[in-house]
């Protein structure tokens, strides 16, 4: 038992070590009865690192019937040493030995990769879970593990087998094993794997087992889903009626997303989720039910989904029911309209909008959208619609639609309603075949803001409706520049066309209008109207007109020229023109109006030269104020026309006699007035002098002592003024007014 001695004899340098070992193994230890001795020997062999020799030693001690055959530690040591030094002997030791630490030795065997030996150890010690783990994890034989599980029939073993099967993708086998193991702990992994493998029949069995052990929302929800996947709808109805903790909303959404609509319908109907139920029924093409569900949901989104589905299915009656609940929302109206139009359902959309007009909550958008639809698809109804509902339309939007669809008449009406008169006028002129109406255009024209449109309208009427241009111009008379209108018509060569208009506006005395009318009158040889125009409107080039017509072939026109010269103060030209046409009366009147004595006397000489004695006599009377009597008598006497001058002389003598009489009368009246004035002045002076003499007598004398206040003895009182031949004095001794 001396460790040092053992170390010495077991030293590799000892030549007798082998012989010593043989003797110890064969003789010494088998005969020893002392555990301490055996222990010291085993320890010495281990210290010397002699595993094979130690095995021989331990086999001698343990396997042969010695006192230490059943020793626990020695058996452990034997197996462990064999595992390290000679693995081929381990299985034999396991089978022959019974008293060793199975769990620990088994783990060592696993670490040494002696899996069969480890399985044998665990199996021998009924460590079934460790045993099946060796089969599954180390040997990796699920078949042997299943066989082993069937043999031992332990839940824990089946559970391990199930987990391994699950890892290997043997989902159905794993579910069966979990059920045998009555193991509900791995339900999340099982559910995930079963769904991946699409083994819902097996999953249903498993989940029913799990429900008996746990109340998990996930389990109940997945059970419903599994029922739906295998089309067991009856079980779903029964299940949701029983107490459960399933999240029915999530399940329903999941079923809907995966197109399990029948099952989803059951769920949504049970939880009264009408919106999702309506969508589900749409997928099932149960449109009437979908409409009923949408009515209960009363959600814009739901109504739209059902409506669009009905449109796609050409269930337009139901679609209209839904649509009427959508179009009352302004934000959704356009979406519905686009959906119908994109699918070519124009008539149905128009019918929907027409029905919407009668709704209590009908808004401007419905009326406007219907107008847009009419513009696109039913133009014959557009104007009537605009006129009926002009106050309830979004006019700018409808204007754009009419412009796009080229409904010019309706577009014009909308512009007028929107007070866009410039655009209305422009539209009428640009698209007159469709949009023009004379009365309407007149009403619009007077309201436009852009002045240039007036003249554009003149051009338009000149080109397309010349017969009505005067009517238009009369309406615009207060707004247009008459000069510019006349210039437009003159350039177009149709000045005569607007003669009535020019006559109507000539009262403004515009030069261009006057000249244009005068020119027309000259062309028409209407000298009466020309003379009237000249008399009433003088703002024109008078000399130019006179020069233009002074050589006219008509005498009356030349007479008008002379008249113009007379009005312009060109007396000589007027008289010369009148003399040329033998219009002696006009010449006399012109000379008389000129106030020029020389012109009048020259005209007398002209008549004498021409031998026009009657004209000579007439000229004396017409130019009576201008002609000097001496000149007249001289010319008459020289030319033997005294008889024709006698009336003039008589008139002259009578006039001058009257004038002398008037002068004499005026002189006498002036003298009389002077005398009367001098007399009056003398009377006034005399009266003033009299007043001055009587004034001291009218004043009282100062009182004397002892007279008792009387001015004089006996109280002298002067006689009244009237008794002395003078007017009485006014109070306070003042003379009467007007005496000075």
From TrEMBL:
Main location: membrane
Coiled-coil parts of chain: 653-688
KW Membrane (keyword) present: yes
CHCR repeats: 29-174, 178-319, 324-470, 473-616
Keywords, comma-separated and alphabetical: Coated pit, Coiled coil, Cytoplasmic vesicle, Endocytosis, Membrane, Repeat
Keyword Repeat recorded: yes
InterPro entries: ARM-type_fold, CHCR, Clathrin_H-chain/VPS_repeat, TPR-like_helical_dom_sf
Topology within the bilayer: Peripheral membrane protein
Location of the protein in the cell: Cytoplasmic vesicle membrane; Membrane, Coated pit
GO cellular component: chloroplast; clathrin complex; clathrin-coated pit; cytoplasmic vesicle membrane; Golgi apparatus; plasma membrane; plasmodesma
GO terms, biological process: intracellular protein transport; receptor-mediated endocytosis
Domain of life the protein comes from: Eukaryota
GO molecular function: clathrin light chain binding
Pfam families according to UniProt: Clathrin
Protein task: Clathrin is the major protein of the polyhedral coat of coated pits and vesicles. Mediates endocytosis and is required for a correct polar distribution of PIN auxin transporters.
Annotated family: Belongs to the clathrin heavy chain family.
Protein name: Clathrin heavy chain
Lineage: Eukaryota, Viridiplantae, Streptophyta, Embryophyta, Tracheophyta
């Amino acid at each position: 038992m001396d460790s040092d001695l053992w170390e010495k004899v077991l030293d590799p340098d000892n030549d007798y070590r082998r012989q010593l070992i043989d003797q110890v193994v064969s003789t010494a230890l088998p005969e020893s009865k002392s555990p301490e001795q055996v222990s010291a020997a085993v320890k010495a062999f281990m210290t010397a690192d002699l595993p094979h020799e130690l095995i021989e030693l331990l086999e001698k001690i343990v396997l042969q019937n010695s006192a230490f055959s059943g020793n626990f530690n020695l058996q452990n040591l034997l197996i462990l040493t064999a595992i390290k030094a000679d693995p081929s002997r381990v299985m034999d030791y396991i089978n022959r030995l019974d008293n060793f630490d199975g769990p620990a030795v088994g783990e060592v065997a696993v670490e040494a990769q002696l899996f069969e030996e480890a399985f044998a150890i665990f199996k021998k010690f009924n460590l079934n879970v460790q045993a099946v783990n060796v089969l599954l994890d180390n040997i990796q034989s699920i078949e042997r593990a299943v066989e082993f599980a069937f043999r031992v029939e332990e839940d824990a073993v089946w559970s391990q087998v199930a987990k391994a099967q699950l890892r290997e993708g043997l989902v159905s086998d794993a579910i069966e094993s979990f059920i045998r193991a009555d193991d509900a702990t791995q339900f999340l992994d099982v559910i995930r794997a079963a769904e991946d493998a699409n083994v819902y029949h097996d999953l249903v069995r498993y989940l029913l087992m799990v429900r008996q052990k746990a109340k998990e929302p996930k389990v109940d929800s997945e059970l419903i889903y599994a029922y739906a996947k295998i089309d067991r709808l009856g079980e779903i109805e029964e299940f949701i009626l029983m107490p459960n903790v399933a999240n029915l909303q999530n399940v329903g959404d999941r079923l809907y997303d995966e197109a399990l609509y029948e099952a989803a319908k059951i769920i949504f109907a049970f939880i009264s989720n009408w919106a999702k139920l309506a969508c589900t029924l749409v997928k099932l093409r149960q449109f009437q039910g979908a409409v009923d569900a949408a009515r209960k949901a009363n959600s814009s989104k739901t109504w739209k989904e059902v409506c669009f589905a009905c449109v796609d299915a050409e269930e337009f009656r139901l679609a209209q029911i839904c649509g009427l609940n959508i179009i009352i929302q302004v934000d959704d109206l356009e979406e519905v309209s686009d959906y119908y139009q994109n699918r070519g359902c124009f008539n149905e959309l128009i019918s929907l909008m027409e029905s919407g007009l009668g709704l209590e909550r009908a808004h401007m958008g419905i009326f406007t959208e219907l107008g847009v639809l009419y513009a696109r698809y039913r133009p014959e109804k557009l104007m009537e619609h605009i006129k009926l509902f002009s106050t309830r339309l979004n006019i700018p939007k409808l204007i754009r639609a009419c412009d796009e669809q080229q409904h010019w008449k309706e577009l014009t009406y909308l512009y007028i309603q929107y007070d866009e008169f410039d655009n209305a006028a422009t539209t009428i002129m640009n698209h007159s075949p469709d949009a023009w109406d004379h009365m309407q255009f007149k009403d619009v024209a007077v309201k436009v803001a852009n002045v240039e449109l007036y003249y554009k309208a003149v051009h338009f009427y000149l080109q397309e409706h010349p017969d009505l241009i005067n009517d238009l111009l009369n309406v615009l008379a207060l707004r247009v520049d008459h000069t510019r209108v006349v210039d437009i018509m003159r350039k177009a060569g149709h000045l005569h066309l607007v003669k009535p208009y020019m006559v109507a506006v000539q009262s403004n005395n515009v030069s261009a209008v006057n000249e244009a009318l005068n020119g027309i009158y000259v062309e028409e040889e209407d000298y009466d109207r020309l003379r009237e125009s000249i008399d009433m409107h003088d703002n024109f080039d008078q000399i130019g007109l006179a020069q233009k017509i002074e050589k006219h072939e008509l005498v009356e026109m030349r007479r008008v020229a002379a008249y113009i010269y007379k009005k312009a103060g060109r007396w000589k030209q007027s008289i010369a023109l009148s003399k040329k046409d033998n219009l002696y009366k006009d010449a006399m009147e012109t000379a008389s109006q000129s106030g020029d004595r020389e012109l009048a006397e020259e005209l007398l000489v002209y008549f004498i030269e021409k031998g026009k004695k009657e004209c000579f006599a007439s000229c004396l009377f017409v130019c009576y104020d201008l002609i000097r009597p001496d000149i007249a008598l001289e010319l008459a006497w020289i030319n033997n026309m005294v008889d024709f001058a006698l009336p003039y002389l008589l008139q002259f003598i009578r006039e001058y006699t009257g004038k002398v009489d008037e002068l004499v009368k005026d002189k006498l009246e002036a003298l009389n007035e002077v005398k009367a004035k001098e007399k009056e002045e003398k009377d006034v002076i005399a009266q003033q002098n009299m007043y001055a003499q009587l004034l001291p007598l009218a004043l009282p004398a100062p009182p004397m002592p002892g007279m008792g206040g009387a001015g004089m003895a006996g109280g002298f009182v002067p006689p009244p003024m009237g008794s002395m031949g003078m007017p009485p004095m006014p109070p306070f001794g003042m003379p009467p007014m007007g005496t000075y």
